[in-house]
């Protein structure tokens, strides 16, 4: 890797702060001698991620079939449906309790309701 040129802004700032060309940064000049290489990142995988692996070719017998369903999908749907049903039952129970409470007040304190 080539060193940065003397016209570089970073180079000029380091020179002003007392750095000498050819030495490393740090108290004992133990740091890097060359700048870190940069590259343009065009994917959305995040910094530090490896390049995406190339997908291997699919055999004729293993082609994706739109009729096939992933085995995890029914479990997830069933779990979500059970959660929805449980919430609806809880809401219905709250409404029944509220209706019972209102009926109680109507029967014993008709003037207040």
Characterise this structure.
Residues 6-52 form the G-patch domain. Residues 31-40, 48-75 have a biased composition (Basic and acidic residues). InterPro entries: G_patch_dom, GPANK1. By secondary structure, the protein is an all-alpha fold. The protein has a domain at 70-113. Helix content is 40%, strand content 0%. The radius of gyration is 35 Å and the shape is elongated. The protein starts with 8 loop residues before the first helix and ends in a 5-residue tail after the last helix.
Keywords:
113 residues; 2 helices; nucleic acid binding; G-patch domain-containing protein
List the helices and strands and how they pair.
Blueprint: H1 9-16, H2 72-108
Number of helical segments with 4 or more residues: 2
Count the strands?
0
Distance between the termini: 85 Å
The pLDDT mean sits at 77
The radius of gyration is 35 Å
As residue ranges, the low-confidence spans are none
The main β sheet shows up as:
none
Q: Strand pairing plus helix content: what structural class?
A: mainly alpha
Strand content: under 5%
Order of helices and strands: HH
Helix content: 25-40%
Bulk shape = elongated
Organism: Oryza brachyantha (malo sina)
Domain G-patch: 6-52
Protein name: G-patch domain-containing protein
Pfam families: G-patch
